[in-house]
Amino acid sequence: MQRKQPLCCQALRTIILNNLICMLFSQPFLACILCSLVLLSCKKDKEEAAPRPDANKITLWAGQDTVITLAGASAQYTVVSGNTDIARVALQDNRLHITTDIPGTTTIHITDQAHHTDSFRLEAISVAGIWRRRVVNGTLQNNVTVDCADALLTQTLKDELKEEVIKADMLYGLTFADYSAAYEEARFGGARSQGTYSYHNLKLTLTRNNTTEEFTIRPDGPRKMGLEQDLTVQYKTLYPTKGITRVTIIRYFNFVPLL
Length: 259
Fold this sequence. Notes:
Elements: H1 9-26, H2 28-48, E1 57-61, E2 65-69, E3 77-81, E4 87-92, E5 95-100, E6 104-112, E7 117-125, E8 129-133, E9 135-136, E10 139-140, E11 142-147, H3 151-161, E12 171-176, E13 182-187, E14 192-200, E15 203-208, E16 211-219, E17 224-230, H4 232-238, E18 246-256
Parallel strand pairs: 1-7
Antiparallel strand pairs: 2-5, 3-6, 4-5, 6-7, 8-12, 8-18, 9-10, 11-18, 12-13, 13-14, 14-15, 15-16, 16-17, 17-18
Helix pairs in contact: 1-2
């Protein structure tokens, strides 16, 4: 990041070096004063430098929040988001709190009292693009949680929901359009179907063949995600006397970049 800065210590030393050497013997008192001025200027430059964020670009999921620790927080400074519809910012001590809302890219500006400014880009992403199920050593990656008073039923549901061995009818991949609400899902056996989707605040809704499913995005960086589906109501209806309080499955996906 580029910014204007006052004359730095190196430049000051270069300008006065020769004069200072000559004056050390002819006018020692004045030489001491100049040395003191150089040291004070160096200290002032260090204190007034605008705080620098940890990275020049940050990528978050729209709806995801984060906190960045700023360096050089001894000076008073302000932060401004270039687009508050995409991201809102707030300061607390030396910590920058960022709240994202909608997908897009904006710039965050950090300015100190001496009007020195640092900036960094913030990109808020959505599910738009191509995603494929995460497979490790031939095993689908997912996580099943079952909270139930009946131990036998708990294990039965875990075995039923835990997708490990790949089958033809299992979900293989999802493709989400960027500028429309269309999406396509693919199965390992080759079958494909289309529908519409909506995304907001890490919530994903898929509608296909008059059936609507809701998911929660569990971010794992900008190129990986867990797609969590809450099946609690469905299984409480099936087993109303078994004390079921929670049934969820998280299917893990990797983003596939376009070549």
